[in-house]
Amino acid sequence: MKKELRIFFTAMMFLTRLPVPRFTDHSADYLERSVKYFPLIGWMVAGISGLTFLIFNKYISEDIAIAASIIAGLLTTGAFHEDGFADVCDGFGGGWTKEKILLIMKDSRLGSYGVIGMMSVLLCKFLLLKELPKFTPDLQTPSVNIFYNYRYLLLTLVAAHGVSRLMPVWVMRYYDYVTDPDGSKSKPVASRKPTILFLIVPTITALLPFVFMSWQFVLVVIPVVYGAFSLARYFKKWIGGYTGDCLGAIQQVSELCFYLSMIIIWRYVI
What are the extents of the domains in the chain? Predict the structure, then answer.
């Protein structure tokens, strides 16, 4: 149990800026095993973002609450995945060969493609999150319990952050890691492909929130998986596999696909 706790805190240290116990070190073995807790870390990020939304929505306004929840998520993760998405935009936008793409993605400076990509992701996230409260059935008969009123929104956030962090783990199972492994912080995570048996735990964790929703919402997984593996195939075509930045981009795109799919199901299926 103590070992699993250390593995969990390793995942927490890798994906977030949240404080961890002092006994959590930088063990490569623990980091490799920590991917099974990635969806659970997503739950934590969703919880912080959701709580921030509820507080600001109660005392200020919905728009400010959505912006605050996004900022809270960015501060919690240190913009870990957003930075990867921006690097991918720079690399694939400005490079036409594998070597050039990898070289640009390693550059710590942010280019025009990265800026545009980052702005687009944040704008899309804001607009999609703004639509979600409008389709929550519980708001038609609100109670004094704000958590109950927004339970579907909170569940959506938890499911979105969990499933979107599951997608990179599955991509690691079927695609190869590229770039210089000795100079990459993702080397321990990508050094060995996770087995199907190993993926059972994170998959169950990511899908658990759907137990508390209407069964139709499970359909959101289809476009999310399609989008994630379409990106993975695109990365393989150009650079032969994925990098840590590519996994970050997959998480961001998967999260946006999740929100969009939820809105479509709310509007046209439920």
Answer: 2-268
Residue 178 DSSP label: -
Residue partners of 61: CB distance under 8 A and separation at least 6: none
Please check whether residue 91 is in contact with residue 178, taking contact to mean a CB–CB distance below 8 angstroms: no
183 pLDDT higher than 70:
no
43-78 pLDDT per residue, tens: 999 999 999 999 999 999 999 999 999 999 999 999
User: Which residue is listed with tokens 């708001």?
Assistant: 139
Give the integer Cα–Cα distance in Å for 40 and 90: 30
pLDDT higher than threshold 90 for residue 107:
no
Provide the H-helix boundaries in the chain: 2-15, 28-33, 38-59, 62-77, 80-94, 98-106, 112-131, 146-149, 151-174, 187-190, 200-207, 221-239, 244-268
Phi, psi at 67, each rounded to 5°: -60, -40
CA–CA gap between residue 88 and residue 235 (Å, rounded):
10
> CB of 149 within 8 A of CB of 142?
yes
Q: 21-25, 186-190, 221-225: which has the minimum mean pLDDT? A: 186-190
